[in-house]
């Protein structure tokens, strides 16, 4: 019962972040098309690079939990097929634990770096948009990946959700 609540809660976070990713891609498409049209008319939009850069970063990082939850990453399975079942489960568990620790570390460092950018007042070059929040969103997204990896570690051989 507890795992069902955990799975539903984390799945809701994953799907919310996937929606944010989709909105980021949509924003990039719209702003690029509008900029092309406006350039043809002799009035390019200022700050398109700023917006597309932020939207691209957001799209990639918020898609990561979904890709992890559906096990959409590329895997090298050649070596796993040569191992006995116990070896595969052990190697998979060790790899998942290492990845979980790596993403914990990366999430923490993104929070720290975002705080540094906030204190420095770092902004984009053209539109002067503060960028600290992008790093904090990245930290949150990486923390959701940790939650997904924890579920995968407790349920070996299963994806958290179907694509």
UniProtKB/TrEMBL annotation:
Its main location: membrane. GO terms for cellular component: plasma membrane. It is found in: Cell membrane. It holds the Pfam family DctQ. The chain crosses the membrane at residues 12-38, 44-68, 89-108, 128-151. It is a multi-pass membrane protein. This is TRAP-type C4-dicarboxylate transport system permease small subunit.
